[in-house]
Amino acid sequence: MQQFYVFVKKEFYHIFRDKKSLLIIFALPIAQMLIFGFALTNEIKNTEIAILDGAHDEASQALIAQFEASKYFEIKKTITTTAEADMAFKADEIKLALIIPPNFKAELAHSNSARIQILADATDPNTATTLEVYAGAIVRDYQNGITNNYRLPYSITAEIRMLYNPQLKGAYLFVPGVMGMILLLISAMMTSISIVREKELNTMEIILASPLKPIILILSKAVPYMVISLINVSTILIISVTLLDLPIHGSLMLVMGVSFLFITTALSLGLMISNITDSQQTAMFISLMGLMLPTLILSGFMFPIENMPYPMQLLSNIVPTKWFFIIIKDVMIKGLGFASVWKEIAILFGMTLLFLGISWKKFKMRLE
Amino acid sequence: MLLVILRKEFQQIRRNPAILRIIFMMPAVQLLILPLAADYEVKNVNLCIVDQDHSTYSQLLFNKLGASDYFIIKDVANSYDEALKTIEKDEADIILTIPPHFEKDLIRESEAKLSLAVNAVNGAKGNIGASYAINIINEYNQEIRKEWFTLPAFNPVPIIDVTYSNWYNEGMSYTLFMVPGILVILLTLVGSFLAALNIVHEKEVGTIEQINVSPIKKYQFILGKLIPFWVIGFIVLTIGLLISRFVYGIIPEGNVGLIYLFAAVYLLALLGIGLLISTIAESQQQAMFISFFFMLIFILMGGLYTSIDSMPYWAQVITRFNPVRYFIEVMRMIVMKDSSISDMRNQLLIIGIMAVVFNTWAVLVYRKRV
């Protein structure tokens, strides 16, 4: 135990000596959390569109006014031909074009049916679908506005309630996701070079010559980073709740406990990388390049996991952030308790043990 | 003199085959796997139905929803509370409650109510799912009306028929959109990261002193560092384009030469940023964290994952300084829209300025002192 204590102290010295790195480690998650927390959202806001008004009558003006009033769209330009829409799409000026045919009002009044065309720039199919649904809803609202005083028999009305997030805020989805991603990457990056650096700088020999057990060495590397990560978790949580309006409907203790478990998982992942690589560059390359995109894409906050092909759904199970994201979402936003998330917690715990086990097995007492 | 440095740099890279393997393998593997997962289309919305009516009509609505491509009837519950459990467990996305006397109300009172409870943690997805459900309920409503009275030949109320056209990507293919985007990101990661670690590595190992005492000029040193990574960047880009051609079957509508032209300037800008970080950082760890910080901002705010239009104004201003944003725009223009070089001249100009600024900055900051 005395040995362990001494080694932890040594590691602390190492870290605190390098003030610049320390500052970066603390400031980085705060800055990222603030930027991404506000900037990343799948809400549709102020999308620039073009309008081709072939009718120029009261009905078309009224419909255009509805689009103008909507917070989803902003009319960037009015055009006269679809060829102009093509040009505007190609220059990336607009994402959607609304085409109102000539005689819009007359047709609506006489035959009670009119046709409207919506053109979308589907180079980004995700956004295109969403925009089409939103634009369709505005047209439907407009139509309901005219038919208001006429009631059809046998009408079914559907009441809609949006659970957990009535204002449909993007933050409820993205803040927990970004939180998991930043915590995982920073924690894993910190420890990923811890052991391999000693190999590179040849200080490893001295340590190996000491009577220290490998597992003590590995753990003592992790402890100081755990303290740092705990501070990071706290600041990130405070920012999420105070500035980014993320609710905590469940137990705060549970959120803290899970975050603690999650950083342990991430730190052990870093230690494992550090033990299986032989240069700092390789270790960093793996922990940054290898982890960044998979955590981003497979953890479920950018792309719903249920949409993925089955093999990808299976693959997503090995991404620790996926489980953290599920737990945080369930506890903080849905307000569920331990009973609903114990399975995910057990998986994170299992992963941690696995990573530490591999680190311990791969740790070499000899240098080549 | 430059040739000598170049030979040294290439030799140094060749001597470490492990990292070289990772440089080429990791992007290739990720490009093969990740685009498959990046599908945001709202489909397979899971429904949990609470049928308290158990009538012919509620059964009809059942069938109608089950037959639709968008919905999967995941579960049938006896009460709303029971159904709520399925949403809590993320097994269902929408609960449809058919209240008691639904059929009776519809026939006798001529109006009936249904209620939808939507899991809106993902707001956009919830909204789209609800919209699909409303459409199907409206269709179903129309069918029932037809049973009870013959609708007049023309519509009794004004109906606006909306048709949607998806330009440039009629099949709404997600790979067509994601593959080029992910390729840009991988290229960005490889390029800037390698450059960022390079000079600082020489500082850590101490070999930089030897270079400092040699008669090499500052700009020669920076160029010598830059060119090998520039070449590696081109190899990664080519591997990526080959994968998108032969694995995903993506044939650019526009001129592939334009992609290379833009990439040439883009890589210069990116490597400039990397080298700048490398000259400023004191250790590889610092370089890694700083480049991680910028990379994540570049990647997440590049317009591939969430639309730039949805960001608050200050964030949109940040994206104007984001090289990834411009390359993704250009990729989409060339691959899908067949835009010409004049359509992309703004992007090219901005990236060109970035390349000049960052590389000059790196040369100026680099001091021949430790």
Descriptive account of the structure:
The complex is a heterodimer of chains A (368) and B (370). Chain A has 368 residues and is α/β, with parallel strands linked by helices. Chain A is built from 15 helices and five strands. Chain A has two domains: 100 residues, abc type-2 transporter like domain (abc type-2 transporter like fold); 198 residues, no CATH class. Chain A has a four-stranded mixed beta sheet with strand order 2-1-3-4, with helices on both faces. In chain A, helix 7 packs parallel to helix 11 and helix 10 packs across helix 11. The model of chain A has no long low-confidence stretch (mean pLDDT 86). With 370 residues, chain B is an alpha/beta fold. Chain B has two domains: 229 residues, no CATH class; 104 residues, abc type-2 transporter like fold, CATH 3.40.1710.10. Chain B has 14 helices and five strands. In chain B, strand 1, helix 3 and strand 2 form a beta-alpha-beta unit. Chain B is elongated. Strand 4 of chain A pairs parallel with strand 5 of chain B.
Q: Mean of the pLDDT scores of chain B? A: 84
- Biggest interface pair, counts: A-B, 125 and 119 residues
Give the biggest sheet of chain A.
4 strands, mixed
H and E order of chain B:
HHEHEHEHEHEHHHHHHHH
Using the alpha-carbon principal axes, give the shape of chain A. elongated
Across the major sheet of chain A, the strand order is 2-1-3-4
* Structural class designation of chain B: alpha/beta
| Count of individual helical segments of chain A | 15
